[in-house]
Each structure stands twice: as structure tokens, then as C-alpha cells.
Specification:
Number of helices: 5
Radius of gyration: 26 Å
Structural class: mainly beta
Number of domains: 2
Oligomer: single chain
Number of strands: 46
Distance between the termini: 36 Å
Shape: globular
Strand content: over 45%
CATH superfamily of the largest domain: TonB-dependent receptor, beta-barrel domain
């Protein structure tokens, strides 16, 4: 790596890697100890910094031992060793990745290792989830004043493969993350708001992107066992030796099996899930790296579903863990394939090309309203689909420094095609097919391109980008003589729409302890193909406009604070609806313009060498714009959430933490005549970790609180009732749940 001399100043280039895995470390901080200038490494672990001859560089990254290097060589190559976690290693600086939350992701993943894919979602400050139809169904997601259902307003991906599913049988944006094995996750990236040009559909409230490990630092086998006949086994095994790793080639496999009765429900869930994952990475030459991924998973479960408030009081079920329809439950399966080539083209140019493919199967039986629509046979229904989807992701970037300004230009394109056949909503009784409510096939194509320019000069960073998305929809109704058939009569089976999304971001760093940022941009969420085809006046790609004003601050060496005030306007909200007949898209329906304002606060503080604390507080005010005052509440949208915890790490290997999660009560319908009850839940984890093994215990709901994990407004009619009742239906949260684990490392 060459050093270009200019008087007493020069640009030094280098790379930072993990000493054990030899993998590049992204977001490591390089600080010139003479002038205190700092920069972060990029995703390839590389950096370029302007220094004076003879300066020393401090290289730090959370969870690694810091390193001091004299910058008097023609190249800098630093291999960092794992070490203790110290918040003093955090240095605030501008970054072309625009990830103002990267410090939080690095810290939280180290301090709070995820026990499940659901825990991985909870790592995002302010993101809450709810499971309401058995363990295998995708979680309901809440973020920034959004009830995002199962993903309508949160873009989720794993290794560049989209998780959200368009025109899904259960709901638009459905994001089933259960195929992800948490122990394989190397890191995650999240952003709030629609400010990122490389993120498209569903990126309104924000996005979450997970990356799996390229190389295992060690093999492991884990066994977990707990209450409710819960058993989980996990194994991660290297397939190639260290010599191959040193030559840039690595491969490993992972397997994860889970069985659980799912809690104290009168009808056991019998939740079974099997995940298999494999990853191969090889350096083709000094400039090209190829990565191949293959994974598959399947799950089966029964569910108690949502229970009307009156069901226990009026004796329809014995207690809150009873069920009114024992046929509820589901089956899902997903297979993923990915091939990715990362190329260094020289002279500051880099390129990424990825091809991916997924096959998905979904079969879910539910009953929300019981005998309201069909008094004789009941309202039980099945949502069923088979889906093939695939696509391409590509980007080309160039970084160049002119005088004291570094320009980073990125151009990208991607495409995605979904073929869903069949796509069904069926009327069932005791799990048996009675007839179609909707039945057809759908095809959906999304092609997009974007260009993004970032200029970093002195204390300033300026970023501007624009994104173009084009969608083509196709839906063919195959049902005859159903209640939904007339909706699709005399309409074209094809529709198309495009949308342009500009973004702008500005960062100003006062010093290595304080940064101010402003974000503004336009995003969108796509509508379901069935809605688009059935209603020519439907909003196909409703836009979201947002802005953030925030800061990152380190007032003390061991204290890191991120806070932001934000605003968002949405052209059309997507909310959950219980009507099985009138909504061609099933359970998600459009419902008008909304506006949200809010404040986010996250703080991380290291009290001693072994004791850490964290706090997240999120406040939002979501309202409909086209409704009368008092009737403008957004159903189920969170208005106040908070999480906090104490984490400890002793040198003798004892570690763990105690934490809470709090969701405030909020409106369950538009006039707030019904309330979705809040909760305060405490969890505890204690481990004893040594080089070769780990034992531990995890307790969820430590104080055994009665709480409702999910709640909805439903009009329902129970057997024997003469009049329907509009009220809250709930899924009870898990009571105290203790689980032991034993892990062997080798």
C-alpha cells in the first residue's frame, strides 16, 4: 500500500483484520494521536487517512485489544486480538456508511448475545415484537409509532437476501425470520427512517440487515432445555482446516433443532423447527472473493390464537391459556441460495454482484371471529401459498480524495421477481377445506437503480442520493362463485407503477466526542397485488417522507448517548383488519394518511470494568390526518416504549444481565374506546464461560407477570351467543420460563 508524500503530510492506507479468523473488521477506528483526526474502516477493513510523517496511529474496536502503530512504514496492516469490552474505545467520527447507529450494534451484540432470531430483532432500540399465532408464525413488529404488522414498514434482510414477502397470503411485507440461526450472525446493521438509497420497499420506519459469519473462530455444540418440554440443539462446525483459512478459503455448516410445547396452553403447540445452513467463502485471487450460501428450514406448530376478553369471564374456556378453536396452527418452509462476488477493481473502485433464490411454503389456519360471518360452520380460515422468488443485487463504488475532500460514489441496481401459485384464502372447519374465499396466482416484479454521492471534508459529511423503483403486478383470479370473485370481474390482470425516492444526509463532527446529524428522505411501501388489481384507484406505492435531527455524544469516556427528534408523513397507512371478505389483500388494508412525530434516546454506560448499563426510551405520536379529532388514533401503534438492563462480565468467567422491556398501553381502535394493555417484563441471564465450555440459565418473565403479548380489536360471535361483540382479543404472554444451556467449544 503506497504512501503519497506532500510536504510533511501524507495519505496512509491500511487494513484491519481479526487475528483469529483473518476476517476484515468493519468500523474499526483509526486515530492519529498527534492531531486527533479519526476515520473508520470500511466493510473490507480498509482505511485511508491523512497524517504527518512520524505520527502514531491508535487502532480500536469494541471488544478487541487496542493497538498503537508508528506510521513510518509504506503500509499499515493490523491484526487485532479479542479483548475486553470498553466503552472508552468508542470514537465518534463521520462515516460514509451513514450508519449513526453502528456503535450501538457493535456494543449490543457483544453484550447481549441473542438466544433466538426474535432476540436479534429486539436488539434494535425501540423495536418490539409480538407472537400471536404459535411459535412458527412471523412476529408482529412495532417501531417508531408503527404497528408494522409482520413487516409492512420495516425492511429486513439476511446476507442481502430479502426477508419481507410481497403479496403474501397472510399480509403484505410478511417477514418470517425463523430460518436464521442466531449463533451464525456476525453482525447487524439498522437504520431508522427512509434515508438510505440502497434500501427500497418497506423501508419507512426503518430497516434491519443481518450478516452471517464468513469464518468460524471455533466449532461449537450447544444444548438448551427448559420448561414446557423445550429442547434446542445447535451445532456450528468448520469443514476446512486453518491452512485453507490462511489461503482465504473457509467453509462451515450449522444446524439448529427446536421443540417446545410453547407454554402452559391447554392445547400444546408441539412447535418443531429444523434449520440447516452452510457457507463457503474463497479468495479467487487478490482482488476477488466469492461467497456461496445455502440454507433450508421447516416448522410445524399448533396455536391457541387470539382469545376474546369475555371468553374466560363467561366460561367459554377455563383460563386465559385455553383455546376456542383447536385446529389453529401452521406449517412453513423456506430454502435460500446465494452466490456473491466482491471485486476490488483498483484505483479506488470496488464492485459487488449477488444472485439469490428462495422457495417458500406457507400454510396457516386461524380463527379470529369464530361464528360471526358463518354462524353454522364457523369462521375458521386457511391462508396458503407456494412461492418462488429470486433476484440480483449489484453495486459499483469509487472513492477518491481531492485536496482535503474525499468523494465516495456508489451506483447500484437490483431486481426481484416473485411467482406465487397458488395464493389462497380458504374457508375451513376443524382444519378441513370447505371452499375458497379467494384463490388465484400472483406475479410481481421490482426493478430498481440508485446513485449515491458522499463528500467528506474536514468536520463535515454531505450525502445525497436518488433511487428509482419500478413495479409490475399480475394477479389472476382462479375462483368461481366466491364472495370475493366479483371484486376481480372486468379488471385488467396487470398493473405497473414507478416511484422516485430522493435522500439527503448531513453530519457535522465537533470533535471525537460529539456529532450532529440531519437526515431527510422519501421512502415507500408497496401495496398487495390483489388490492392493486382489484381497485384501480388504490395507492400502489404510497410514499413516506421523513426527517431526523440527532446527535451522538460521549460526555464521559464510558458513556455513549444517541438521541434524535424525528417526523414522518405517510401517504397511506397499512393496518391490520379482521374482515375476511371485503379485503382482497386478506388481513392488511389501506386506511388513509398519517403523520408521526417522536423522540428516540439510547444510552450506554460502563460503570466499572465489569458492569455495564443500557437504556432505550422511544416516544411517538401517531395520528390519522383525514379523521376527526378523537377518531384519529392509529390502532395498536406504540406511543411509549422503553428497555434497559444491567450487564456484568467478571474476569472469572461469570457473566450475564438483568433487563426489562416496557410497552405502554395504547389505543386499540381509532377512537380509543378500546385499549391495548401495556406490559413490563423482566428477564435474567447468568452464564459461566470458559475457553472450552459454557453453562448458563436464562429466565424470561422473571417475576411471572400476567401480560398480553398481542392484542387486536375483533368483532366476534361465540357459539351460543345471539349478538356479536366488538372488543379486545388477546394472546397471553409466556409466564415465567426458565431454560438451562450447556455449550462445548472446540
Amino acid at each position: 500500500m503506497a504512501i503519497k508524500q506532500r510536504n510533511q503530510e501524507k495519505f496512509i492506507e491500511g487494513k484491519v483484520i481479526d487475528s483469529l479468523t483473518l476476517e476484515p473488521i468493519e468500523f474499526a477506528t483509526i486515530t492519529d494521536l498527534n492531531n486527533k483526526n479519526s476515520i473508520h474502516t470500511n466493510k473490507n477493513g480498509a482505511f485511508r487517512l491523512k497524517i504527518n510523517t512520524g505520527d502514531s496511529l491508535a487502532i480500536t474496536f469494541i471488544g478487541y485489544q487496542p493497538k498503537i502503530i508508528k506510521a513510518d512504514q509504506h503500509s499499515v496492516f493490523a491484526a487485532l486480538k479479542k479483548g475486553t469490552i470498553a466503552l472508552k474505545d468508542i470514537v465518534i467520527t463521520n462515516s460514509p456508511t451513514l450508519n449513526t447507529y453502528k456503535t450501538l450494534t457493535n456494543l449490543d451484540l457483544n453484550m447481549q448475545p441473542a438466544k433466538s432470531a426474535q432476540d436479534l430483532l429486539r436488539l434494535v432500540p425501540g423495536l418490539f415484537i409480538a407472537q400471536h399465532q404459535g411459535g412458527g408464525k412471523a412476529e408482529q413488529i412495532f417501531l417508531r409509532g408503527f404497528d408494522a404488522d409482520h413487516g409492512t414498514d420495516v425492511n429486513i434482510s439476511v446476507d442481502g437476501i430479502p426477508v419481507n414477502m410481497v403479496s403474501q397470503a397472510h399480509g403484505q411485507g410478511y417477514a418470517d425470520l425463523h430460518f436464521l440461526i442466531p449463533e451464525t450472525v456476525a453482525g447487524y446493521d439498522f437504520g431508522k427512517g427512509p434515508y438510505y438509497t440502497d434500501k427500497g420497499d418497506f423501508n419507512t420506519a426503518g430497516y434491519v440487515a443481518y450478516n452471517t459469519k464468513n469464518v468460524l473462530d471455533r466449532d461449537m455444540v450447544k444444548v438448551e432445555a427448559g420448561q414446557f418440554n423445550t429442547l434446542r440443539t445447535v451445532a456450528l462446525i468448520n469443514l476446512l482446516d486453518d491452512d485453507m483459512k490462511k489461503r482465504g478459503t473457509s467453509a462451515y455448516v450449522a444446524a439448529d433443532y427446536l421443540y417446545s410445547n410453547g407454554g402452559p396452553f391447554s392445547i400444546p403447540e408441539h412447535f418443531n423447527r429444523l434449520n440447516l445452513f452452510g457457507k463457503f467463502i474463497t479468495r479467487l485471487d487478490s482482488n476477488n472473493t466469492l461467497t456461496a450460501i445455502a440454507s433450508t428450514f421447516k416448522s410445524d406448530w399448533r396455536a391457541s390464537g387470539e382469545t376474546p376478553d369475555r371468553a374466560v369471564a363467561e366460561g367459554y374456556i377455563a383460563n386465559r391459556f385455553g383455546t376456542l378453536d383447536s385446529a389453529q396452527g401452521g406449517h412453513t418452509a423456506r430454502t435460500n441460495l446465494s452466490l456473491k462476488l466482491v471485486s476490488n477493481l483498483g484505483n479506488g473502485w470496488s464492485m459487488t454482484n449477488q444472485l439469490w433464490y428462495s422457495h417458500y411454503y406457507f400454510n396457516l389456519i386461524s380463527n379470529f371471529s369464530f361464528y360471526y360471518y358463518f354462524p353454522q360452520t364457523g369462521d375458521e380460515f386457511r391462508q396458503y401459498e407456494r412461492r418462488d422468488m429470486g433476484g440480483y443485487n449489484g453495486s459499483l463504488s469509487k472513492s477518491v480524495t481531492v485536496n482535503n475532500t474525499t468523494f465516495t460514489t456508489t451506483a447500484g441496481t437490483s431486481s426481484r421477481y416473485d411467482h406465487i401459485d397458488p395464493l389462497e384464502l380458504d374457508h375451513t372447519e376443524n382444519g378441513q377445506f370447505l371452499g375458497y374465499l379467494q384463490y388465484g396466482r400472483a406475479k410481481e416484479l421490482n426493478v430498481n437503480g440508485y446513485i449515491d454521492e458522499t463528500a467528506t471534508t474536514g468536520k463535515w459529511l454531505f450525502n445525497a442520493g436518488v433511487r428509482l423503483d419500478y413495479f409490475h403486478y399480475f394477479y389472476q383470479n382462479l375462483a368461481t362463485d366466491t364472495l370475493a370473485t366479483n371484486i376481480f370481474n372486468n379488471v385488467s390482470q396487470n398493473a405497473a407503477k414507478a416511484i422516485i425516492s430522493p435522500k439527503i444526509n448531513i453530519e457535522y463532527i465537533f470533535n471525537n466526542q460529539l456529532q450532529l446529524y440531519l437526515k431527510a428522505g422519501k421512502g415507500f411501501h408497496s401495496n398487495d397485488a390483489r388490492v392493486v388489481i382489484a381497485h384501480s384507484d388504490a395507492e400502489v406505492l404510497p410514499a413516506a417522507y421523513g426527517t431526523d435531527l440527532g446527535l451522538n455524544w460521549k460526555p464521559l469516556p464510558g458513556l455513549f448517548i444517541n438521541t434524535a427528534a424525528w417526523y414522518m408523513y405517510l401517504q397511506q397507512e397499512f393496518t391490520f383488519g379482521s374482515d375476511l371478505i371485503d379485503q382482497p389483500a386478506g388481513p392488511v388494508s389501506p386506511s388513509g394518511r398519517t403523520v408521526r412525530i417522536g423522540v428516540d434516546l439510547s444510552a450506554r454506560y460502563q460503570l466499572t470494568k465489569w458492569l455495564f448499563t443500557n437504556l432505550n426510551v422511544n416516544v411517538a405520536r401517531p395520528r390519522y390526518l383525514d379523521s376527526l379529532k378523537g377518531h384519529d388514533y392509529v390502532s395498536l401503534a406504540p406511543t411509549f416504549t422503553s428497555t434497559a438492563g444491567l450487564d456484568f462480565r467478571f474476569k472469572n468467567g461469570i457473566n450475564g444481565g438483568i433487563s426489562y422491556r416496557y410497552l405502554h398501553s395504547r389505543a386499540a381502535n381509532s377512537d380509543y374506546s378500546l385499549t391495548a394493555r401495556g406490559y413490563f417484563i423482566t428477564d435474567l441471564t447468568v452464564n459461566y464461560t470458559r475457553k472450552k465450555y459454557e453453562v448458563g440459565i436464562a429466565i424470561e418473565n422473571l417475576f411471572n407477570r400476567n401480560w398480553d403479548e398481542a392484542q387486536f380489536e375483533y368483532t366476534s360471535l361465540l357459539k351460543g351467543e345471539t349478538k356479536p361483540v366488538d372488543e379486545i382479543s388477546y394472546t397471553p404472554g409466556t409466564p415465567l420460563f426458565a431454560k438451562l444451556k450447556f455449550t462445548v467449544f472446540f
